[in-house]
């Protein structure tokens, strides 16, 4: 069974930082591309970052370019999203996803507010 567990969300002030983690199990993590999505209330889930299986290629959504960094540690079956200079519009539930599988993680809430 594919399982993805996100953590690291919380409440931060504008300009603050968070590091999200996604721990994967049930598949050979190192062979698969991985994505981060987010969804704000009343809005569609959107792709914010992606990373290739060995981490050599990354994609970052334009609106978070220069602020977010995606990475992975295949020895720990873990993907990360380092989020810096957070803005209120980054507030959302952040989800982990392997495009090759149907399963989503449970999500972790990120709230950016003063």
Q: In which range does the helix fraction lie? A: under 10%
Strand count: 10
Mean pLDDT metric: 97
- Spatial order of strands in the largest sheet: 2-10-9-4-5-6
Share of residues in strands? over 45%
Main beta sheet strand tally, sense and closure: 6 strands, mixed
Number of helices: 0
What is the alpha-carbon Rg in Å?
13 Å
Q: What general form does the structure show?
A: globular
Decide which structural class fits the backbone.
Answer: mainly beta
Poorly predicted ranges: none
**N-to-C SSE series?**
EEEEEEEEEE
**End-to-end CA span:** 40 Å
Describe what this molecule looks like in 3D:
- It contains no helices and ten strands.
- It is mostly beta strands and 114 residues long.
- The radius of gyration is 13 Å and the shape is globular.
- The relative contact order is 0.33.
- The model has no long low-confidence stretch (mean pLDDT 97).
